[in-house]
Amino acid sequence: MAEHLTVGRVAELAGVSVRTLHHDDEIGLVRPSARTAAGYRAYLADDIERLREVLAYRRLGFGLREIADLVDDPAADAIGHLRRLRGLLLEQRDRAAAMVTAIDQELEARAMGIRTTPEDQLRVFGAQLYEVIGSAYPATRRTEPRIAERIWAALGDARTVLNVGAGTGSYEPPDRDVTAVEPSAVMRAQRPAGAAPCVAASAESLPFEDRSFDAAMAVSTVHHWPDPVAGLREMRRVARRVVVFTYDASSPGWQDRFWLTRDYLPEFAELLSGRPALADLTRAIGGRAEPVPVPWDCTDGFFEAHWRRPEAYLDEQVRRAVSVWTRVGPSAELRAVENLRADLASGRWAERNRDLLDLDAAELGLRLLTA
Ligand SMILES: C[S@@+](CC[C@H](N)C(=O)[O-])C[C@H]1O[C@@H](n2cnc3c(N)ncnc32)[C@H](O)[C@@H]1O
């Protein structure tokens, strides 16, 4: 028999009880595939590898059902699992670091006798998304020149421009005097050397006097703001002109506009439920909305960017730079990706989406709001 480890030895090495290992065996999560001469359970190298994955996912807080789906994922080999685990662990580390920072800030405030608001106390559990996922952003997110052209044209002759929710600096016009606003320290830290100066603040409370800028712009960010209407009013207050690149999740049947949401990730709709309609956003700045088609070879890897290149969504790196995938959770993500992988292999995706293959650009609900 190949080299094996007894259940007692495995329990000792992994720091779990023999009872836990027996239970994992009974429910089919980790089945030792050999027996010793005396008939006891014995673990071979592959069993140990699977156990390591199960223990790691368990430590990350996944439930039994989710762990079973993850370790049985036919598309992930040992290297795939290690990469996925590494990504999840880095996310957990960044989330913990963000919580430590928030707790330190609250301790400091209390020491100074300042009472924190309910919003301050809860922010650490909610709006820290980019502290957690931000480090994956620059790999696939960058200025798409054809969209930038539209945004820069809409800025007109503005000389001073405020970029709100600026992230790593995409779409900042190189020929104007730009000031950036970005609440996430992780995103601010990734702005390239020589990028416009960046202020740590949020859209809902811009630390500038009325009419301080010729124009204010916000790109792919409004859907993250806790109060989009308040943020847009702030932009209107501090600038004479406002340009916003956002998404219309209110026109009838919008969920069916994009095959990824329609056929694989219906959970996307839940993320946007209760958010203001496009008409409310437009009203907040007193402007109008125009469609922005997404080119088939869009270079900014946002959620819809790969509509004619479906294989891209199988790539973990592409998904990690788009918050939707983190927000729907690992079970929905895994299901969507595996169903897409199967449909690509069987030709079902191509059959259903034949019409797209001749298009150079698609109308997927992206809008430019100008005022
Ligand atoms: C998808 S990124 C877009 C970044 C950049 N505008 C771009 O086009 O690459 C969304 C950004 O919005 C920021 N954000 C989240 N909440 C915000 C708020 N309340 N006010 C301003 N920015 C916010 C996030 O930290 C993140 O950097």
From TrEMBL:
InterPro entries: DNA-bd_dom_put_sf, MerR-type_HTH_dom, MerR_fam, Methyltransf_11, SAM-dependent_MTases_sf
GO MF term set: DNA binding; DNA-binding transcription factor activity; S-adenosylmethionine-dependent methyltransferase activity
Gene3D superfamilies given in the database record: 1.10.1660.10, Vaccinia Virus protein VP39
CDD domains, A to Z: AdoMet_MTases, HTH_TipAL-Mta
Record keywords, A-Z: DNA-binding
One Pfam family from the record: MerR
Superkingdom: Bacteria
UniProt domain HTH merR-type: residue ranges: 4-73
Keyword Transmembrane helix set for record: no
Protein name (Swiss-Prot/TrEMBL): MerR family transcriptional regulator
Species of origin: Actinocatenispora sera
